[in-house]
């Protein structure tokens, strides 16, 4: 019974030590696969992000335009 308990502790310690090693190994593999985008790909990403900003900005503006009169009606009625 005692030897199985020490085996369990040894396995836990081994898992604790092995986890950061595995994380570092996978991180290195990920970095090695990454590449810098070329100019065409960068422009596509920039356009997509710009369109997203514009869409969310327009949506926020529309919501604010709707909110102001409703807020004035509710506050003005009090």
From TrEMBL:
Does Transmembrane helix count among this protein's keywords? Answer: yes
Q: Which InterPro entries match?
A: Prot_translocase_SecE_dom_sf, Translocase_Sec61-g, Translocase_SecE/Sec61-g
Which GO CC annotations does the UniProt entry carry?
endoplasmic reticulum membrane
Q: Where in the cell is it found?
A: Endoplasmic reticulum membrane
Q: What is its main location?
A: endoplasmic reticulum
Topologically, how does it sit relative to the membrane?
Single-pass membrane protein
Please list every transmembrane segment annotated in the UniProt record, as residue ranges.
42-63
Q: Name one GO molecular function term.
A: protein transmembrane transporter activity
Among the record's GO biological process terms, what is one? protein targeting
Identify the keywords attached in UniProt to this record, alphabetized.
Endoplasmic reticulum, Membrane, Protein transport, Translocation, Transmembrane, Transmembrane helix, Transport
Q: Which HAMAP family match?
A: SecE
> What family does the entry list?
Belongs to the SecE/SEC61-gamma family.
Question: What's the protein name?
Answer: Protein translocase SEC61 complex gamma subunit
């Amino acid at each position: 019974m005692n030897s199985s308990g020490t085996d369990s502790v040894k396995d836990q310690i081994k898992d604790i030590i092995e986890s950061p090693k595995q994380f570092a190994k996978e991180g290195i593999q990920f970095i090695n696969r990454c590449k810098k985008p070329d100019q065409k790909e960068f422009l596509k990403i920039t356009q997509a992000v710009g369109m997203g900003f514009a869409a969310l900005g327009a949506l926020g503006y529309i919501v604010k335009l709707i909110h102001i009169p409703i807020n004035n009606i509710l506050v003005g009625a009090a």
